[in-house]
Amino acid sequence: MRVDWLSAFVLFAGTLVFAVGLLDSFLQGLTVQQINRLIWAVDVIGCVLFLVSGHLAFAEICHGRRRVLWRILGWWIVAVNQLGSVVFMVSVLAASTRPATGSLIDADIADRNTLTGALCFSAGGILQQYERP
């Protein structure tokens, strides 16, 4: 089994999980418990899959050793995407809904980190335009 393909598969699975969470977010009249189970927990699973995919991508680009490859564009692409995955996870954790009040733990952190994660993924996509196999 190739690690690069496994990383891509796990990333694809995470994307599908996020799509389920997005569809669930359109449901109306959910209780706080239903929101946490149908939307928030699904987002956590998607984030974990993104983080696992990034870890596998690092294993592939670094040939199984932990190291920083400053001069290799592929390493930077993986690093920027992994940073996006980490800040997405922080965003999801901050977006948990408190059962007592129905409010988010910290909407500002959730919004800021969602934007930062999206910018990281965009930057990774732009960097990929310059990578040549």
Structure characterization notes:
With 133 residues, the chain is mainly α. The longest helix has 30 residues, at 32-61. It has four helices and no strands. The protein has one domain (3-128). Helix 3 packs antiparallel against helix 4 (107-128). The protein is elongated, with a radius of gyration of 16 Å. It has helices at 3-24, 32-61, 73-94, 107-128.
Order of helices and strands: HHHH
Q: What is Rg?
A: 16 Å
Q: Give the rounded overall mean pLDDT.
A: 93
Instruction: Name the overall outline.
Output: elongated
Largest sheet: none
Q: Provide the domain count.
A: 1
Low-pLDDT segments, ≥5 res: none
Please give the share of residues in helix.
Answer: over 70%
Distance between the termini: 20 Å
Based on DSSP secondary structure assignment, what is the total number of beta strands? 0
Task: Report the structural category.
Answer: mainly alpha
Strand content: under 5%
The number of helices is: 4
